[in-house]
Specification:
390 residues; alpha/beta; Urease, subunit C, domain 1; TIM Barrel; nine-stranded parallel beta sheet; eight-stranded mixed beta sheet; 29% strand; globular
């Protein structure tokens, strides 16, 4: 199929130009004056690359830990409906057997919807004191068992790791050699441990200001920096931010932005399975770990604990939120396209350019999504909702 999007305002790498975009067999072949094949007149609307989410757990009632095609199919459809055309399904802490089942399910699934760019293992290599929603009794150091990571290196592309765990620095060095990106988080670390991991290749922080350590002491009066501070000052580090004005309030985001710049900020959703569902009461998990949660005012909360349970805001909505805060439009776009692509070394997405996939979002000037094209083909989002939302 050949299609040309005419009269588009094309955002690419910091610039907006008026041009046509030609796509052949799902790949952009020209950006300029050429008109070839079918045409779609965008009437001056803004075009960006499709959004990328490198940390997300589910959507439309399904979780990435469910080892069924129905679950991952629903999640892939949900993300595409939000303008996220590439994502990294993220697992939770569980037994190696259960993690392997989830990983194998995703490996065997071929998505007709949002593209899967590998898997993110968030756990079990997390600190007990910063486990968050992860079951503490299943947390282990990488020195105890990391075989299931290396056995799945064909599809595992990210691992979240607490630097204070035994064997953390050595794990980073081996992961980098295997082509796996290491993100530091859920930790109880001091700067010496953190820098050892960074020196061995770790290059991001998982959901900044959420389960990331602060300055502390160990066995001497000396105060050490925590992961939060190291993430803010070390230029080698890209920081994930859940920019929903809840997990990271907008005023706090502005401080992160001032210190890091948009070039080192990657917006992530960290979505729960209930993302995309109406406000109300739901349950996460089953059996003894079953928890009641409530979606209220754009966030999921644990009503009995009066705390957040997780995000229900896709990265495209976060970009809209930051634009309203005064962050420049191009930088809002880059933080959910170019930066996550760069972090995971994804060569064929993240920017509108010749040779890249024709995954395109059509937006208004408030970054509301008007249309999404996957490989040059328009996505019928209403049909997706009717099919998957029960």
């Amino acid at each position: 199929m050949t299609i040309t999007f005419i009269n588009a305002r094309v955002y690419s790498q910091g610039r907006i130009t008026t041009a046509n975009i030609t796509a052949e067999d799902g790949i952009i072949t020209a950006i300029g004056k050429q008109v070839k094949g079918e045409t779609a007149d965008l009437n001056g609307k803004l075009c960006t690359a499709g959004f990328i989410d490198v940390h997300t757990h589910g959507g439309w009632g399904k979780d990435c830990m469910e080892d069924t095609f129905e679950a991952i199919d629903t999640i892939s459809a949900y993300h595409l409906s939000t303008g996220t055309t590439t994502y990294v399904p993220t697992t939770m802490t569980a037994s190696p057997e259960d993690i392997n089942k989830a990983v194998d399910n995703i490996r065997r699934y071929k998505s007709p919807y949002a593209r899967i760019a590998g898997i993110h293992l968030e756990g079990p290599y997390l600190a007990q004191k910063s486990a968050g929603a992860h079951p503490p009794h299943l947390l282990i150091p990488p020195s105890k068992d990391s075989s299931f990571v290396w056995n799945n290196a064909d599809i595992v592309k990210r691992v979240t790791l607490a630097p204070n765990l035994d064997g953390a620095a050595e794990f980073c060095a081996k992961a980098v050699k295997e082509g796996i990106q290491v993100s530091l988080g859920h930790d109880d670390s001091i700067d010496d441990e953190i820098y050892a991991c960074i020196d061995n290749g770790a290059d991001s922080v998982t959901h900044m200001y959420n389960c990331t350590s602060r300055p502390s002491r160990r066995t001497t009066p000396k105060k050490h920096l925590g992961l939060t501070e190291v993430g803010l000052i070390d230029e080698r580090i890209t920081v994930e931010v859940i920019a929903d004005d809840r997990h990271v309030p907008n005023a706090l985001f502005k401080m992160i932005y001032k210190l890091k710049g948009s070039d080192k900020i990657c917006l992530v959703s960290d979505l729960l399975s209930v993302a995309g569902m109406p406000e109300g009461d739901y349950y996460l998990g089953s059996g003894e770990s079953k928890q009641k949660i409530r979606i209220d005012d754009g966030v999921a909360i644990l009503p009995e604990l009066n705390t957040y349970a997780g995000s229900v805001t896709p990265v495209g909505k976060m970009a809209q939120n930051l634009l309203k805060c005064g962050i420049p439009m191009g930088e809002c776009i880059d933080m959910c396209t170019l930066i996550p692509a760069r972090l995971l070394n994804l060569k064929d997405v993240g920017v509108l350019a010749v040779g890249k996939r024709a995954d395109i979002n059509v937006l208004d000037d408030e970054l509301n999504i008007l249309d999404t094209y996957l490989g040059g083909e328009r996505v019928d989002k209403e049909a997706l909702r009717q099919r998957y939302v029960k």
